[in-house]
Amino acid sequence: MASKPIEDTADWVGTRLPRKEDLRLMTGGGKFLSDMVLPGMLHAVFVRSEYAHARIKGIDKSEAVAMPGVVAVYTGADIEHAFKALDIPVLIPNLPAQFPKYHALAVDKVRYHGEPVALVIARDKYVAEDASELVIVDYDELPVVIDAEAALEDGAPRVHDDSKDNEIFAMTFTGGETPEEQAANDVEVEKIFAEADVVVSERFKVHRTGVTPLEPRGVLCEWNESDGLTAYITTQRPHIDRLALVDVLELPAEKVRVIAPRDMGGGFGIKAPFYRENIIIAHAAMELGRPVCWVESRYESLMNIGQERDQINYMEIAATKDGELLALRNRGIGNNGAGCIGVYWGFVMPFLGAVEMPNAYTWPKGDVKLRVASTNKTSLTPSRAFGNFPTRFAIERSIDIVAHKIGMEPAELRRKNIIPQLPYTSITGEYYDSGDFLGVWDNLMAQIDLEAFRKEQAEARKEGRYIGIGFSCGVELSGVASDLMVPMENQPGYGAASVRLEPRGKVYVFGGDAPSGQGHETATAQAVAAIFGIDPDDIVVTTGDTTTTPFGSGSIGARFGSYYVSAVAKACEEIKDKITRILAHDLQIEAHKQHFEFKNGDIVYLGDPTKRKAFKDMVERIIMWPINLPEGEVGGLETTAFFEADKPMICFNADCCMVEVNEESGAFNITRWVTSEDVGNVINPTIVEGQMHGALVQGLSNTMFEEFVYDELGQQMSADFEHYKLATAADVPDFEITYSSTPCPHTPLGTRGIGEGRPSSVPGALTNAVCDALTPFGIEITELPLRPNTVWRKIQESKS
Amino acid sequence: MPTINVTVNGERYEETVPERLLLSDFLRERLSLTGTHIGCTYEGVCGACTIHLDGEAVKSCLMLAVQADGHAITTIEGLRDGSLTPLQAAFKANHALQCGFCTPGILMNMTEFLEKNPNPTDEEIRHGLVGNLCRCTGYVHIVKAVREAAQSTTR
Amino acid sequence: MFPAKIEKYVRPQSIAEALAALGEFEEGDAMFLAGGQSAMQAIKSRMLRPECIVDLQNISELKGIDAAAGGLRIGAMTRYVEIAQSAALNGAFAALADAAARVGDRQVRNRGTIGGSVCWNYMASCMPAVVLGTNGTMNLTAANGGERSIAADDFFLGPLETAREDTEILTSVSWDAPVSKTGSAYKKWGLVTDALPVVGVCVRVSVGGDGTCSDARVSISGLAGGGERAPAAETALLGSDGSTAAIAKAMDAAAEAADTHSDMSADADYRRQLIRNLGREVAASAFARART
């Protein structure tokens, strides 16, 4: 997409404006949580469980307490009755599940390696670590269950003593609301499978991996009796964290303020849950009367958070021999881990993954069921591509396997079954509001010459070279409407923003969501600048402070381009209403907003362009000289607006990946990656492309390199960057991002929220390409990670 | 406790430090130069703490402050003299940063890289970046920015 | 994680001063710090808790590359960046540059040293295997000034273990001048670029006047026992013509004989395959270098 030249201020939307955020971040001026220092600040270090499952017989903290410089040491016994457990309504989704009770520090027993057991607070962080080594925990080891299928068997070790079994959540997503309707549907689906020309049936396994941000978590709390608690938290959803702190600590709501630092080093969903560490740090700050800071180490981070995916899908597809998809049947088994995280409890991700499973294809019928097992791993935490990485891999691979079975070009099979017309409601009940899926697909195919590639592939094979092509496509949620957010997370989905003008004509925007690098300051400023006809430099964006911003459910699920910026636009339009009412009155004309243009710093009456006023002068007049106003008007220019879409909204993409596989080593090299995107109207193409690049590399890194490894005793073996491998710049390709956009009809700017779900298209496209390259060997890969080792082994098996 | 003499961003410091104090903590906490970031526990892999020690890119989390005695250090705060360096300008023009947490380390490393390799290929740039993990950008715009900075200074 | 308490830090100016400083502490309580790119990981994770750190950065006699008279001596405090870029490291010694150019990353290569690496002898590291494969000699000085030299075969005893006494300092690693035309090469494989080796192979070959291989050493990095020689491959190469077939046969033998293990990076069979693939490439390169 070319950069729109800025001929007038309307062009701010759609242009490649360099970001407002960058100057401070490039010069060491960013202010991240760990950069904050408060007078008298104390440092906290957690003692974490050495075992995956063990009874805590006792904790001796006497030596730690006695160490000079140590201020306090807390254990589960100290806090069990000091404040509530974390199974509180604000943190519990409206989904039927066995929610385990848990505390900020483990009480009685530990349920995963790395669970917080004690907290040491000292004046110096080095001393806090010294003292943490002196906290002696006496454990009695319990049997461990790591595998999800094993955890669901009778007699498996029970992860949570207060649950009847390890099945934390189970659901049927197809066929209707009642068990009778669902059972009848299952019979119909079975009939389709029994009569189908072709049935594909595979077990797809995706490992435990996620999207580790470069900045780990942190919490800094201060307390004083008059103002109450101020908690600085690396969080994507400060308003939810505030409510949780209020409810768990049983504080008056007006006494709790949460501030997400303006600069956060990535989030990707990992900073969206409410974490137990927040509570104990707040409690300590209140009890000690001094600020307490905890900065998570990478070791703690990799052991506790950012772990997602980890799912088995038994997927079956029925199709005709002509490539018409008839039915989808899936039995998903999610490995939840211990589930001790607020809002999500682990299983909300596999829940959404099941909802989104049908993807962009027309399935006349489906039978989709999910079971999620508690195990002695740390909880699943949301990671970009929330829940749908494993299911998208399974579906996109299955499509190729069907194509291979019936001897059809996989691209052709996709096109044949892509939903031709929107809106559409999927077999799992997901509503797709708008877009042109076939347009996106055809745009992708226009970027490549498939026929030429097939010829080249045939020629290469003659020389013993194996090149392949793989496709995938992806329907992603563009924000989450209240319709889905209330049941799923017990929170609203609307976007909210306050817009305040100051007397010199500058604009302050306040948002309750808390971004972590997505460029919201810039994109917000571009939208506001275009609406008011002013310069983006005139706009200041504030996010993340619960005292100054309206309620927002957080920077999650691609809410920016869908809900938040729509609320901003709505607020600006309301202010324009007022400005133009007063301006028409001042000009003594009969005119309304649509008769004025806000452009290049002026407000121009379209009926007579000589009738105009500088925007800043008009703003000053309304704020500072509120006399001679129309009847009923008062001065001042500030409003808060909420935006809600009636139905969920989506965005859509299709990917093509080309590889060359080395038959001898199984190594594969990505030679080209092309995408086609429907991202609606784009505010800043450069930012959108940055989001896509980042998401694609996260997807590649998850697919090829990253893996959280547990041994049979539940010990985590991958808690540092030497073992948990992130892709480096030398490991990944360049990408060609192309657009086939349709404006969203439901948002004021026609924008769509983008980028969140984007990594999930990667494992399917890449694995399809590798399998396509190896067609002569008849290899179908159904497990991740995808590594040279795995590919090589498959080739050996095929040869023997 | 030993006393160390270091020059940081052109300013001379004489400071008494515990032997075990990490150089990264010395810069961040003692000198309040918080642009040097910490993204690892002990492993020193992420590169966000990269500084210049006597003009060379090194990871400040893998050094003790006492080891820097007698040396000159440049941190991200001291990288530019007034206006943005060509590399910084290229980063801004090409959207080579998102959250910005890794960015100071990348700028420090790539600044020295370009001094040693004024005319690098993309492959050399990517190889030069191995010591800096970035989680947001997918590296594409970073590579582009480094390439553009090289071209703008060698032109 | 932060280092445990350190009582003393000293920065001697000479080898004698360094040894004297070390001697002030009980054996094992004080340690030398070279580039610190591995040692600091261990100190921060508190796997190492030295009371005293003797920082070798100021000792100029420990630095530098000396390639006089066809042999080679690399001071223990010589950094990877210098080894990777040294014009002297061609032919018989090219494997050292191959390895140094791919250790860690730029920042690590700007500080990490050959001496630090060989004395630490981490299981998955390149330099010990390359020193072994190129037949280097470790030159040590003891507290009383006594010097001894230990061949690589006798120096590397297993992961994190070497023949160096705690009271000795490694001053340099040296190599004799090759008697005939000799070439060496090294390459490793890891999951991501320049990661610690899952497997690496170092080959050093000499060719006689008739073009056949008159001497061969092969070592493998990344094995459970650290860097190890591959005698089966050496035997197979010796006397061969260095042809593709001969090399393949030798590397098959190396793979067959290697005691590979399975872990999260690769399984045992794949490690064998890596030995074959890398070995062929590296051996071909070593022969080519020997012949130029």
Question: What features would you describe in this structure?
Answer:
The complex is a heterotrimer of chains A (800), B (155) and C (292). Chain A has 21 helices and 28 strands. With 800 residues, chain A is an alpha+beta fold. The radius of gyration of chain A is 28 Å and the shape is globular. The N and C termini of chain B lie far apart (50 Å). Chain B has five helices and five strands; from the N terminus they run ββαβββαααα. The model of chain B has no long low-confidence stretch (mean pLDDT 97). Chain B has 155 residues and is of the alpha+beta class. The longest helix of chain B has 15 residues, at 140-154. Chain C folds into three domains: 8-55, Uridine Diphospho-n-acetylenolpyruvylglucosamine Reductase, domain 2, CATH 3.30.43; 62-175, Uridine Diphospho-n-acetylenolpyruvylglucosamine Reductase, domain 3, CATH 3.30.465; 181-291, Enolase-like, domain 1, CATH 3.30.390. The interface between A and B is large, with 59 and 59 residues.
Brief summary of the model shown:
The complex is a heterotrimer of chains A (800), B (155) and C (292). With 800 residues, chain A is of the alpha+beta class.
Given as residue ranges, the uncertain stretches of chain A (5+ residues, pLDDT < 50) are none
Main interface: chain pair and counts: A-B, 59 and 59 residues
CATH architecture of the largest domain in chain A: 2-Layer Sandwich
Q: What is the C-level CATH assignment of the largest domain in chain A?
A: Alpha Beta
Main β sheet profile of chain A: 7 strands, mixed
Distance between the termini of chain A: 49 Å
Average pLDDT taken over every residue of chain B: 97
Count of strand segments of chain A: 28
Principal-axis shape of chain B equals globular
Structural class per helix/strand content of chain A? alpha+beta
Helical fraction of chain A: 25-40%
CATH architecture of the largest domain in chain B: Roll
Order of helical and strand elements of chain B: EEHEEEHHHH
Unreliable residue stretches of chain B: none
Regarding quaternary structure, how should these chains be classified?
heterotrimer
